[in-house]
Amino acid sequence: MFIAIDCNNKEEISNIQQMILNSIPSINEKILKAVDPGNLHFTLFFFGEVDDKRVEQIKNKMNEITFQGFDIIYKQIGAFPSFKFPKVIWIGLDENSTRKLISIFELVRFKMEQIGFKPDKQFKPHLTLFRVKKPITNIQNCLTKYTDFIAGSDKIDKIHLKKSELFQSGPVYSDIMTVFAK
Fold first, then answer.
1. Domain edges within the chain
2. Out of 61, 100, 126, 162, which one is annotated catalytic?
3. Residue burial 71-109, b: 16+ Cβ < 10 Å; e: rest
4. DSSP symbol at 26
5. pLDDT tens per residue, range 42-87
6. Per CATH, domain 2-180 is 3.90.1140.10
7. Which of 6, 76, 133, 168 is buried most, with the most CB atoms less than 10 Å from its CB?
8. Residue 160 annotated among the catalytic residues of the structure
9. Is 41 a catalytic residue?
10. Which candidate, 104, 111, 152, 166, places its Cα nearest to that of 7?
């Protein structure tokens, strides 16, 4: 289970995925696996396996969350842990959008810590575009040209509690609960 904000501008992000694939020579899907547009999201809080009693506690705390909707601007392509040894290729946000998303994360973190959950890692707002399946060398030159790249905008107006099920074809996410902006 995890708490996330979905990407609503899926067409724009799909176009960016294709643009990146076109800019990296000799790459195929066995090396670089694109995230399905339906699965694009910002993970705010990851829980892992959660029993039914804890799910109810999470839902109750999520019901206490209130926030105003806002717009974000996608900017800059990055890689975790680095361009030199990428495992994930992502798109980030401009500075103002990053601050806004961090404030939502802090609100969620505060509510979840009240029932004993701690974040699994530091929050860095990003959408995962690709998972790197085999080591790639020399993509740094292909991707660093996108460090100041502005890639469209999106509307943040919902937070979801999601369930993830893993299948051979990839993960399938389903919404358990949604909190709407006021």
1. 2-180
2. 126
3. ebebbbbbbeeebeebeebbbbbeeebbebbbebbebbb
4. T
5. 999 999 999 999 999 999 999 999 999 999 999 989 889 988 888 9
6. yes
7. 6
8. no
9. yes
10. 152
